[in-house]
Amino acid sequence: MFFNVPLAPDIPIYATTAAYKKDPNPNKLHLGVGVYRTEEGNSHMPNVVRQVEKTLANDPYADKEYLPITGIPEFNRLSAEIIFGSDSPAIKESRVTTVQCVAGSGALSLGAKFLAKYNHQHVVYLPEPTYGNHFNLLSGSGLALKTYRYYDPKTRGLDFQGLLEDLDSASVGSVVVFHACGHNPTGVDPTCQQWEQIRQLVRLRRLFPFFDCAYQGLVSGSLDADGQSIRMFVRDGGECIVAQSYSKIMGLYGERVGSLSIVCKTADTARRVESQLKLIIRPLYSNPPIHGAAIVTGILKDRNLYKEWTAELKAMSDRLVKVRHQLYNALCERGTPGDWNHIIRQVGMYSFTGLNEEQVGFLTKEYHIYMSSDGRINLGGLSSNAVPYLADAIHAAVTR
Ligand code: PMP
Q: Are residue 229 and residue 345 in the same domain, yes or no?
């Protein structure tokens, strides 16, 4: 029956990890997959996660019975509060519906399915470039994908004019995906003033904003500051969708925890929207898993744990900024040809180095450095000790 099934190609980011694991070289570096590691290169699990896990035996969900289709109610309430702010009028007026999802990916996919059913315009605009899996997650439901200009390779910054022009010419009702903060893969975010201009244009052109929020708190170290882009759009009373991920911000990668929030204009609309989300979820996976969401709930509902978690987030974002500066300084010290200022201008977990595919191939072959072929490096996987080695390798790649 399956005789003719063709062999699918490997998925690049997984292939990079597999190649790294196989490499016996002691100096090897893994800067591919977006996982935050400690200074010692070990996987990082926030201390609060360990603490809460110890108490889960007494959790109300310890019986492991099915959750409601929309997940743990308290998880949903608290998730909405960290995205929109606990004093958000949209929450107070019950205009937001939030449902637990199978991580950020599941939230994006659920959002796409909802939009395909209920948004009259089936065009979705993605930034160019964007998180690679966006194309898979958002296209399957019958939505047509287009891109809008975002990154300017000449300045290695935002192509703001191009972005405005492309959104200005999008048809009414088109969905526009924005990275709420810490754009993956470029590390290039609009400024607050630019977000405000984007918001005005989106509302004027009656486009539909769909935020992907996978790095809240990892950019500036503050959940509130990193939530500003979304909160601007919520403050104006209009609609938007937010896909949230706890993978990076709580180190819960494999637990697959996230949420989808839809901000509506009235509480009654939000209630009806939630009823439809249930109908989409039911045939997909019926109801979400408990464990990861119970951990998140345990942290968010406890004042002390919440404080400890946000302090850990701040320390993580500080370390990202520190290695960014160390890499920049190391390249300057070596007199590596080119302007490397973009490394310290970019923000969040990634640096879009500007290295081309051939140079990346050189780094892998000669220096055992594994990274995305587009030149993106995950700073979360880079320790201070490894910076000189990486800088030597980049220097060799660009001067050979
Ligand atoms: N959106 C972006 C921008 C991401 O970088 C990622 C993960 N790399 C995701 C969504 C998916 O996150 P999750 O692992 O929670 O599915």
A: no
Q: Which runs of consecutive H residues, i.e. helices, occur in the chain?
A: 12-22, 47-55, 73-84, 89-92, 103-118, 134-139, 160-168, 192-204, 223-226, 228-235, 267-285, 291-301, 303-333, 341-345, 357-367, 387-399
What residue numbers bound the domain in which 139 lies?
66-301
Do 246 and 296 sit in the same domain of this protein? Answer: yes
Ligand 1 pocket by C-beta < 6 Å: which residues?
Answer: 34, 103-105, 131, 179, 184, 212, 214, 245, 247, 258
What's the pLDDT tens digit per position in 346-361? Answer: 999 999 999 999 999 9
ipTM of the complex: 0.99
Q: Tell me: do 100 and 200 sit in the same domain.
A: yes
* Atom 6 of ligand 1, nearest CA residue: 214
- Please tell me the residue having the least CA distance from ligand 1 atom 14: 247
Q: What is the distance in A from the centroid of ligand 1 to the CA of 4?
A: 33
* Residue nearest to ligand 1 atom 8, measured at CA: 34
Which atom in ligand 1 lies closest to the alpha carbon of residue 33?
A: 8
Q: Are residues 296 and 391 in the same domain?
A: no
User: Rounded to an integer, what distance in angstroms lies between the CA atom of residue 80 and that of residue 339?
Assistant: 41
| Cα 165 to ligand 1 centroid, rounded to whole Å | 27
**Tens of pLDDT along 26-77?**
999 999 888 898 888 788 889 999 999 998 888 878 888 999 999 999 999 9
**CATH number of the domain bearing residue 193:** 3.40.640.10
